[in-house]
Design brief:
67% helix, 461 residues, mainly alpha
Length: 461
């Protein structure tokens, strides 16, 4: 995902007079930034971003609440209504086949095809507009609760950008393309901050993914912060008032505090490399799946086939471990919280089965279904990190924290965002785990990039 860049105002000629309000010797870039931040147009852009954060947060709240309710109906209430204690081992297969049958006409006939392929990242390069937004919402609400091994983060960003661009249609005169791109990015940031627990991680993600620096980064970041902060106030207050759960990515309980020692750091590097290799292998499977489903005349049938294959992976996990198929299906947010709260409830064999089946199902989903790519990868990394805690010298808490950070870095390529996300998730343990989290993020990022370079046959450094 690369958010659109704001206009580059750093091309002031060296001989141009210095703007008022600046001191002699001010750099041209700083002077241009000063002018932009104080301009009437930029103040209006910030005001618009704050206003957009409110309706976008409300829309995302109802989107997430509805998805969470549907997911609970499919995997908990419906089996109980049929006289079962929990979802049986075969439950995932018919649910995923149904998801494929629902998604097939969406990807072939609905404008926008239900959204970008998740193997291409969160945004796929271009923001979702109002015309494509209904297909994205329909695909997400109709298939994610059925067990598709993808997260809600990409549909949420589509909701944010689509509503932001829709609001610009009411303007008397269309804004310039640069302002339109910034507004769409601010809308996406406000939307994804609702699932990431606040504006901090979302804004860091946008800033790091944009790859900007200096004045251009500030001009992009301020509207994003404004929109996401305004939306967070409404989202938090409305959630407390209604009491409706939304299933945000969070760890209410983490293992007891254990400060990393020398053994944790010695195991941290190879463990992070192993997690990056697993995530990269699953992503490569997603790329191959995307090529296999790309032919328009066979896309519908192959979409159903891929959804069925995901169902087989979920079923295989339930058969191998005797545990609920729900743990290998879905985005993995609930299973991640359960793993953090009760890491010893899984045997090492069960954790490795979860890693294998979840990674395989996630890789197939990346190239054929619709949703976000991050959350299932985080669960895969966390499970593998906890499984590695059986090694002498590596603790459960360090294994969990480095697993989250390494998997997020490997799938996004954004080490800073991944480190901030893992740090916030670890809560009170974060101050002790931060050095190991940073080390794991950097190691996984470098490993994933080396694997991508070798696969492309690029010998350049």
């Amino acid at each position: 995902m690369r958010p659109a860049e704001p206009p580059d105002r750093r091309d002031t000629a060296p001989s141009a007079p210095e703007p008022s309000g600046t001191t002699p010797g001010t750099a041209p870039g700083e002077a241009a930034l000063h002018q932009t931040l104080l301009s009437r147009g930029y103040r209006r852009l910030l005001f618009l971003s704050a206003l957009l954060g409110v309706p976008i947060a409300l829309a995302c709240f109802f989107f997430l609440s509805l998805q969470h309710w549907l997911q609970r109906e499919v995997w908990e209430d419906l089996p109980e209504a049929l006289g079962m204690d929990r979802a049986p081992w075969w439950w995932g297969l018919p649910m995923l086949v149904l998801a494929g049958l629902i998604l097939a006409p969406i990807v072939t006939r609905v404008p926008g095809g239900g959204g970008h392929l998740p193997v291409n990242g969160l945004g796929g390069g271009t923001p979702i507009g109002p015309r494509e937004l209904p297909g994205v919402v329909l695909a997400a609400l109709a298939t994610l609760p059925l067990g598709v091994v993808l997260g809600p983060e990409a549909p949420l960003m589509a909701v944010g950008s689509g509503l932001a661009l829709l609001s610009l249609r009411a303007a008397r005169e269309p804004p310039p393309p640069e302002a339109t791109a910034v507004v769409a990015t601010a809308g996406s940031t406000a939307a994804i901050s609702t699932i990431l627990g606040g504006p901090v991680v979302a804004s860091v993600l946008i800033a790091e993914a944009a790859g900007l620096a200096g004045p251009r980064l500030v001009m992009l970041l301020l509207p994003c912060l404004t929109a996401s902060a305004a939306g967070a106030l409404v989202f938090t207050g409305f959630g407390a008032w209604t009491g409706l759960p939304v299933g945000a990515l969070s760890l209410p309980t983490v293992p007891p505090d254990a400060s990393p020692d020398a053994g944790d750091f010695l195991w941290g590097i190879p463990a992070a490399m192993l997690i990056a290799i697993v995530v990269a292998a699953a992503h490569r499977l997603g790329e191959r799946t995307a090529r296999w489903t790309a032919r328009p005349e066979r896309r519908a049938a192959r979409t159903v086939a891929c959804a069925s294959a995901v169902g087989l992976c979920v079923t295989a996990y339930a058969l191998l471990t005797g545990r609920s198929p729900e743990e290998a299906a879905l985005s993995g947010q609930a299973t991640l919280a359960e793993l953090a709260a009760h890491p010893h409830a899984w045997s090492v064999a069960a954790l490795l089965a979860l890693v294998a089946c979840k990674a395989l199902a996630w890789g197939i989903s990346l190239g054929s279904l619709r949703g976000g790519p991050i959350f299932p990868a985080v669960l895969v990394g966390a499970a593998l990190g906890v499984a590695c805690a059986g090694l002498p010298g590596l603790g459960v808490t360090p294994g969990l924290s480095l697993g989250i950070a390494a998997a997020a870095a490997a799938v996004t390529g954004l080490p800073l965002t991944s480190a901030v996300l893992a740090t916030l998730l670890m809560g009170g343990d974060a101050p002790h785990q931060t050095p190991l989290i940073v080390l794991a993020s950097v190691t996984a990022t470098v490993t994933a990039r080396l694997l991508a370079r070798d696969r492309a046959g690029d010998a350049r450094p």
